[in-house]
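Incident log, structure service

09:12 report received: a user says their structure output differs between two submissions of the same chain.
09:20 pulled the input from the user's history:
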Amino acid sequence: MAEEQTGLEERIIIKDQHTKEIDLVNRDPKHINEDVIKVDFEDVIAEPAGTYSFDGIWKTSYTIFTVTKYWCYRLLSVVLGIPLAVIWGFLFALISFCHIWAVVPCIKSYVIEIQCVSRIYSLCIHTFCDPLCEALGKIFTSIKVALRKEV
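09:34 re-ran on a clean worker, output below:
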């Protein structure tokens, strides 16, 4: 019984990332478009005091704006959503591939090669600069500064 439950837990843990369920209610769970795309009728069209149109025109304009925005977005999603998803999926796959197979190995190779140069550079600095700095330090230790305030 315990072995069956362990096998079930392993199958649940190993569940494929591509088959996970998506939330159809909250479609922006990480709030990446929170500040960007909140455009309502009141954000675009406003009538200042004293220049009002007829109430029927205002209500009709509101309805037409809202319905047009809603259905145009839906139509664009149907027409362009899948092709753009393929393009973005390909682009991010390409970026991941380049990062995994080119960028990280190049950086690791560079770090390994630069360690040799770093040791040689450090040796040169300690050989030539350390004695010079010590000599200059000994020269400047004999200098004494006295501040006097003259009135």
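09:41 both user submissions now match this output. Likely a transient worker issue. Closing.
09:42 reviewer note: The longest helix spans residues 55-141. The chain has a mean pLDDT of 85.
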